[in-house]
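This part of the workshop introduces the protein records we will be handling. Getting from the letters to the C-alpha cells is the skill we practise here. An example says more than a description, so a record of this kind follows:
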Amino acid sequence: MKQKICKLDELFSGKARRFEVADRAIAVVRIDNQVYAIGDKCSHADVSLSDGEVLCDTKEIECVRHASSFSLETGKPNTLPATQPVPVYVATVDNGDVFIELK
C-alpha cells in the first residue's frame, strides 16, 4: 500500500517529522532531496525518534533519550544501548509529493 503523506517542500532537510500512517508512527526524514522513512519508536526505549537529531553525513537518526543512532537506510542501531532494529519503509517523491509504501 502506497500512501501520500505530504509535499516535499513541507519537509526540511536535516529534520525529522512524525506521521501516522495506517496506525503506524513513522519518522520521515529529508536529507537534501532524499527522503527516508523509519519507525518512530526507539527499540531500546519508548521514545519518538522524530524528536532526535538527524545525522546527515551518516544517514542516521539519534534517539534523544540514550543517544542510540539508527541507520535511516536499514533501521539497524549503530550505537548502544539499542541492539534491535526499527522498521524502515520505502519513501518516494513523485511530482513533489512524498509517498510511503507499507507492506
The beta strands are 2-7, 15-21, 24-31, 34-39, 53-55, 60-62, 69-71, 88-94, 97-101.
